[in-house]
Amino acid sequence: MLFRKLEKKVMQLEEEIAERKALEEQREAIIRDLEQKNAELERFTYTVSHDLKSPLITIQGFAGLLREDAQKRDMDRLQEDISRITDAAGKMQDLLTDLFNLSRIGRIGSPYEDISLSTIAREAVHFLSAPLAEKRIAVEISPDLPVVHVDHTRIREVYTNLIENSIKFMQEQESPKVRIGMRESVDGPVFFVQDNGMGIDSKYLSKIFGLFEKMDGRSAGTGIGLAIVKRIIEVHGGRVWAESEGPGKGTTICFTLLQEKCGATGKE
Predict the structure, then answer these.
(1) Is the pTM of this model over 0.70?
(2) Which end of the chain is more exposed for a tag (fewer CB within 10 A), N or C?
(3) In angstroms, what CA-CA distances link 174 with 177, 194, 211, 231?
(4) CATH no. for 1-104
């Protein structure tokens, strides 16, 4: 009788220890997550203040020149000053718009729906038909992309940003091409947007999804596009990464979605 009571007490103690250990592990996981978010917030604050300061300095500088050139009645310089101020204000507006969109991902969105990725990819290609035609870029969309359960608008934004990136960094190719497809892996389907453009040095592959990261400072855009892509895919339970054999050898941006979001092949 005494042995049974002792055995029961030991079992209770073991359960309490296991519960406390689980709670401790949960607490440590929360602390690590908070530390990571704080570090990201610090980087975000620094980067935003730096990148928003740049157009403000430009506006301030050319506003001073605008006053001087107006007094001199130098109309050519006056028009140049106005143009530079307008460009800087436009850049700031683009930055603020992209930051606003980034902040809304995961908080505000459309209801999830079942839709073929082929349909979403075609919508993105149609939206970018003008710049694609201008650069004579051929687009190939794989017919075996599956039906997925996603935020239609957000995933279209993913494809739009990735195709825009391919257009931007295509360079002068004889036969420019963008391929939108899927490949199987041990962990499930991997979706990709592949181009034969300028490619990426291996040391930058993990950096391009950072906020305001741009491979070419002279290129158009705010440097937030791939950060938006990363955030959307993470909200959908997936991950995103870049592949390239190096400069001049094209780039493939890959992403996954939660298995439960990937359904049957979406042939239409």
Answers:
(1) no
(2) N
(3) 10, 16, 32, 34
(4) 1.10.287.130
